[in-house]
Structure formats: C-alpha cells, structure tokens
Amino acid sequence: MAKTLLALSVGGLPLVLWLLRSPGRAGGLGVEAGCGVLFIRDVTMVMSGAPAKLKPLPRFLLLAEVSTSGTATIAGLWVWVWLPFVGKPLSPDDGHALASRTFRGRALRLAAAAAVGTLCLHPVRQAIYLGADHGRVGPAADR
After folding, report:
1. Alpha carbons 57 and 74: distance in angstroms, whole number
2. pLDDT bucket at 46, cuts 50 / 70 / 90
3. What is the 3-state secondary structure (H, E, C) of 82-143?
4. At CA 59, angle to CA 56 and CA 61, rounded to 5?
5. How far apart (Å, rounded) are the C-alpha atoms in residues 31 and 41?
6. In angstroms, rounded to a whole number, what is the distance separating the alpha carbons of residues 92 and 143?
7. Considering its fold, how many domains does the chain have in total?
C-alpha cells in the first residue's frame, strides 16, 4: 500500500503540469484542490508535533512543503477561485486594468510554481517515510 501511495505521489507532478497547461479554469481548480488537501495534511502534521519526532532532513522537507503548499493554496484561491467567480471582471475603462492583469499574471505564476514545488517535495518525503526508520529519531525509529 505504501509503495502504491509513493507511485501516486510521483505521478502527481506530471498530472499537475498537464492540468496547468489545460485550457480553462478546470485545470487550475484541480491543482487548487490537490494543493489544498496537501496543505491541510501538512498543517495537521505540524500542529500534532510531528516535526519534533523527525530527523532534520524530513523535518526541513515537511516545513518547506507547508510553506509551498500554503503559498500554492492562497495564491491559487485568489487566481482560480476569487477572480473568476467572485471578483469583478477587468474592463478597458478601469484605470488599474493593466496593473491588475500584471499582478494576476504574477499571482498565477506564483501559484503554479508553488504547486510544482509542493509536488516535487511531497514524493521525496514519502520516499523517506518508507525507509526502515520512517524518518524518525529516537525510540520511535525502532518500531
């Protein structure tokens, strides 16, 4: 089961790259959903005290994944959810339309880069957790 989860985790990066290139909002919403789930899982692990039980590399990777998945989730919510569904459309009469388009493009690139970063870190963490000590320190590693 664990190796299947690792294989699915590795397959997440090509899937996200494909979704980011797909036309329309559906791809972005799919990426947003995946990053949101990983962000919730990562925050839950951090809040439960998991970093204190991990070796330095897995601890660093977990904290890095929290930051990348959080960035992807927040920027993605704005780009793929707020602007298309709630925000007002940009009109040519809007004096800030060009600045808004530029900011929107930067936010889109930030969300995409953070999503790709998240899905690069996640399989590495999963592979470490499949090791004999599961990336843990102390007596918990002997179990």
Report:
1. 26
2. very high
3. HHHHHCCCCCCCCCCHHHHHHHHHHHHHHHHHHHHHHHHHHHHHHHHHCCCCCCECHHHHHC
4. 110
5. 15
6. 64
7. 1
- Domain range for residue 24? 2-142
Rounded CA-CA distance 56/86 in Å is: 42
Length of the chain equals 143
Residue 123 is encoded by which pair of tokens? 């399989």
Contact 62, 54 (CB under 8 A): yes
The answer to whether residues 29 and 76 touch, using CB atoms and an 8 Å cutoff, is: no
Q: Tell me which amino acid residue 15 is.
A: L
Count of beta carbons in the 10 Å neighbourhood of residue 48 = 10
Per-residue confidence band for 101, with pLDDT thresholds at 50, 70 and 90: low
Choose among 131, 12, 136, 126: nearest CA to 20: 12
Query: Assign residue 85 a region: left if phi > 0, alpha if psi is -120 to 50, beta otherwise?
Result: alpha
Contact call for residues 37 and 9 (beta carbons, < 8 A)? no
Q: In 3D, which of 1, 17, 2 has the Cα closest to residue 119?
A: 17
